[in-house]
Amino acid sequence: MSLTVDDVNKIAYLARLGIDAQDTESYAQDLSGMLDLVAQMSAVNTDDVTPMAHPLDQAQRLRPDQVIETNNREAFQAIAPQVEAGLYLVPKVIE
Amino acid sequence: MHTKTLAQIAQGLRAGDYSSQELTESYLARIKQHQDLNSFITVTEHQAIAAAKQADAMLAAGDAPFLTGVPMAHKDIFCTLGVKTSCGSKMLDNFISPYNATVVEKFNAAGAVSLGKLNMDEFAMGSSNETSFYGTVKNPWATHCVPGGSSGGSAAAVAARLIPGATGTDTGGSIRQPAALCGITGLKPTYGRVSRYGMIAYASSLDQGGPMAQTAEDTALMLQVMAGFDSQDSTSVDCAVPDYSADLNNSLTGLKIGLPKEFFDEALNSEMAASIDTAINEYRKMGAEIVEVSMPNLKLAIPSYYVIAPAECSANLSRLDGVRYGYRCENPTDLNDLYIRSRGEAFGTEVKRRILVGTYALSEGYYDAYYIKAQKIRRLISDDFKQALEQVDVIMGPVSPTPAFGIGEKTDDPIEMYLADIYTIAINLAGLPAMSVPAGFIDNKPVGLQIIGNYFDEAKLLNVAHQYQQVTDWHQQTPKGFE
Question: Is residue A82 a part of any domain in this protein?
Fold first, then answer.
């Protein structure tokens, strides 16, 4: 499996991850190497195997739908890059 | 004072041989003296001395919890209220955590005094501590070598006797491999045994926190504090916590030890194989029975891991987007630019590699071929261990194919670095508990013996490790210059 520079750019956009243009080629090589390593899995027939998500096959726990936490907005927003009137600020999304 | 074990320190405090403040000041001075090891990212001197004074008052009043006044430190992956929690990344270099991880709360409640936050690979992705934004940690046994990773700061600090115990986390070997490379004792508990709440997630179905210290006895004391159900962690397992120190002195006569033949193949360095053999012989002398077992799917552990871990990492790290906390780029032109540049400027190369692979594996049309396939392989590997553990009490083998390697030696070839995790990764996939115990030296660099047990059988592992430490003194050796 070999990924091209275009593939890397496409994946990087999906991940919203900036990559320097001069590094794209080396990412393409590293990723192709990782996919070659991973390709060893295809040699094994796993048709009747159930995928394993939790080592102890535990299901997600449910809890009663009750308020259990207090509002910590001020503490959480104290470490935010930019807030105003209790809101997180980002560049304008809707014109 | 600094060569004492955590158990000895706790007893000394109780006996009044020294105060927690004296201890804390003495360890803080050692941390400063050996700061060129780069094992700490943050030293919380003032908080530590305040906590030590409080501990001394509690000790004087009597009825203090067992670890009261004992100095230790946390891997910088555990959120600590009011203290920088960087996870080894530029992304969180400005992150002052607004809450404590459950593990941190538990150590605080047990009276332990935290001296600060320990260096680590960025977001725990690495086996050498070389991916940290704060620079590589040096191995105290050979300062031109890596300490292992990702809990490299924890391992180096304990090995250099800068602290008697540290927390670590293990997703693919990140407690056991640095413990082995630095000659200390480390335990990765059963998945779900220790709360992951406030432990910054890398690969959520594999991550597990655990103790790192000089001895098995000390790791038992620390695990006692860490283990237990936590409603704040949706994958925490609700199962009783035994007394981990109760079985330490049990006899090993009749213990069945499984040796997977796949652990001793050509990939293993011959001197490493000889060291492990010598350790197994000690167990024979103690009355253990050695049985060969087989793990036919072991070779698929690395391929399976390098889908599951990056896939989960790409999902977990998507929350780091420059909006609510962490790094934000200068003058973003629009929201996409804010995301792309904040993440691009703040993540290091190894983290980016794994985000990219994970994003690819989870992208439309590839999910079944990669993630589901890897989860199926994961079950095959887990079944291999289940079958083996029906025949034996514990499984033993090496932790790492070689002792500590040189700083910079493997950074050009990420795949080669991944392959070195062959003996540890499978255990995370299966979710089993495992330990690394000091078992000798090759060219003055420590070797670790890995002991793997059944689900929730940590007490057995600790017993098996402790008995070995009664007949060997590898765990008592201190690196030159740190005596």
Answer: no
